[in-house]
Write a structure and sequence with these properties.
Blueprint (H helix, E strand, L loop, with lengths): L1 E11 L2 E12 L4 E5 L4 H4 L1 H11 L8 E7 L11 H11 L6 H4 L2 E2 L2 E2 L5 E2 L4 H11 L3 E4 L3 H4 L7 E4 L36 H13 L3 E4 L6 H6 L10 H13 L5 H4 L5 E2 L7 H5 L9 H4 L4 E5 L6 H5 L2 H6 L1 E6 L2 E6 L3 E6 L18 H8 L4 H5 L3 E4 L5 H5 L7 H17 L9 H8 L3 H13 L4 H18 L6 H9 L5
Helix pairs in contact: 2-3, 7-18, 7-21, 18-21, 19-21, 20-22, 21-22
């Protein structure tokens, strides 16, 4: 009887949990059994491993083969166990040096010809291996993806045949590119709407939530989609934690590792699981994929109420905690929520040129679709009316996104040099950052009374005022900053 064990991982949420892949080859009727609560993809590894070993020139043992994935009570999923299972079998049968199984952890999918392929969640595996100071055996094309993980010893492997003489040498992973976000629609293409552009700049500088309300064709969606062009690049820490979420979801992580902040715009038919995550196995939703970026909900009033209300916890906490029968999963979800909606079902309530045809009861019911708790979590809400044709046809020189982004980057730098970005401030830290004098404090009290603000609403008013002060380069929040922040309370 021969046995071998290879270290591997399985992804739970956005973290990799250690798993031991134990292979036992013993006398008995020939068979290949995988135990340890694996899903369908794990069970299908038997056929992939058998074909890959034979294609690479190895002998598949004509014996009873049992593979155990320990700990047994932990559910395992994905095709990443193909490579560690194959490596454990080869070490157990003496076809590769036994040190090949003990000197590194492994994760990868096998093709039928013996080639090694990358798997979703590879960054989570790499972070776990670096944290445990264990070399990681991965597909050769994965080096570009895991280059952002500091302290990782990565061993590239193109095919199983290369294991005959033992593990390949550790390879240096290429550095991730560092670029300025480009390719986004330019803000100069939006004519007029100076107040809406100003609100968009404030939202970008402070990572704040913003709601545009207006009739069809007023430019709400056009404005929101140009937010990505004025956002500052991700910091190195933000790139890694954001890329892990995208890696677990099986998405391309290159834009995130290059510094581009996520901009997610799901359709209004999205389900609650699509927005906040779920499924079997659980996958991150749009809110988590927008981590450190923007979640844009166009026609927000058309989203299912259950889906919208599911966003209340992440908007407050920056995390999503999903509790299912299989266990508890936690996803990061700190994002700026940008929304657009019509004021009524026909869209023309308050329009000076086209009358609204909706009965008052219908208008009231339509406005309640967001709900009070979600509305209270919006930092700014703004009415956006249609632009006159003369302004659209007259192509005046509009400020480009690059100029606005420079101001946003400068404002974020001032905020980070103080208490931090406005969207992350609350309580005593927010009050210290604002440093209100008596006049400014009186302006806050007046605004709270006029707009009937809750405690959360006052906090969000102060966040907007602090961001306006950062854009102006002011060390403290003045009365003018509070008054401008109060203007962005259309729902009040």
């Amino acid at each position: 009887m021969t046995q071998a064990t290879v270290a591997s991982w399985t992804v739970l949420g956005v973290e990799a949990v250690p798993v031991e892949v134990q292979a036992d080859v013993s006398a008995g009727l020939p068979g290949f059994t995988v135990v340890g609560l694996g899903d369908t993809a794990v069970m299908e590894a038997r056929d992939r491993v058998r074909a890959a070993l034979r294609a690479a020139g190895y002998d598949f043992p004509n014996a009873r083969v049992t593979v155990n994935l320990a700990p047994a009570p932990l559910r395992k999923h994905g095709t990443g166990f193909d490579l560690p299972i194959a490596l454990a079998l080869l070490a157990a049968t003496g076809q590769v040096p036994r040190r090949a199984a003990t000197d590194a952890s492994a994760v990868g999918e096998l093709s039928l010809d013996g080639a090694v392929r990358s798997v979703p969640g590879l960054l989570a595996h790499a972070l776990a291996a670096a944290r445990e100071h264990v070399p990681l055996l991965v597909a050769e094309d994965a080096l570009r993806t895991i280059g952002a993980v500091p302290g990782l010893a990565a061993i590239p492997l193109s095919c199983l045949a290369r294991l005959r003489s033992g593990l390949p040498n550790v390879a240096a992973a290429p550095e991730a590119r560092s670029t300025t976000p480009t390719g986004a629609p330019d803000l100069a293409e939006v004519h007029a709407q100076p107040v809406a552009k100003r609100a968009l700049e404030i939202a970008a500088a402070g990572g704040l939530n913003l709601l545009f309300i207006g009739p069809p064709g007023s430019g709400k969606t056009m404005l929101a989609r140009r937010l990505s062009g004025i956002l500052p690049a991700l910091s190195p820490e933000e790139r890694l934690e954001t890329a892990v979420v995208h890696s677990v979801a099986g998405l391309d992580v290159d834009p995130v590792l290059a510094g581009v902040r996520p901009f997610r715009a799901p359709h209004h038919t999205a389900t609650p699981a699509g927005l906040v995550g779920g499924g079997s196995p659980p996958r991150p939703g749009e809110a988590s994929l927008a981590h450190n970026g923007v979640l844009f909900l166009d026609e927000i009033a058309e989203f299912a109420p259950a889906a919208l209300q599911a966003l209340r916890q992440p908007l407050e906490d920056g995390w999503l905690t999903l509790v299912r029968a299989e266990g508890r999963v936690r996803y990061p979800a700190r994002f700026a929520l940008i929304c657009a909606m019509n004021p009524c079902p026909c869209g023309y309530l308050g329009d000076p040129e086209r009358p609204c045809t909706c009965p008052p009861a219908i208008v009231e019911r339509y406005g309640r679709r967001l709900g009070g708790p979600l509305t209270d979590r919006m930092d700014m809400s703004l009415r956006v009316d249609r632009v006159p044709p003369s302004s659209l046809l007259h192509r005046a020189g509009e400020e480009p996104s690059a100029a606005v982004r420079d101001r946003v980057v400068a404002a974020r730098g001032r905020a980070l040099a103080g208490e931090g970005v406005s969207s992350m401030l609350a309580g005593a830290a927010l009050l210290r950052a604002c440093a209100l004098d008596a006049t400014a404090r009186k302006a806050v009290e007046d605004a709270a009374r006029i707009h009937r603000l809750s405690g959360r609403g006052i906090t969000r008013l102060l966040r907007v005022a602090r961001t306006i002060a950062d854009l102006a380069g002011a060390p403290r929040v003045l009365t003018g900053h509070v008054q401008e922040a109060s203007c962005y309370r259309a729902l009040g």
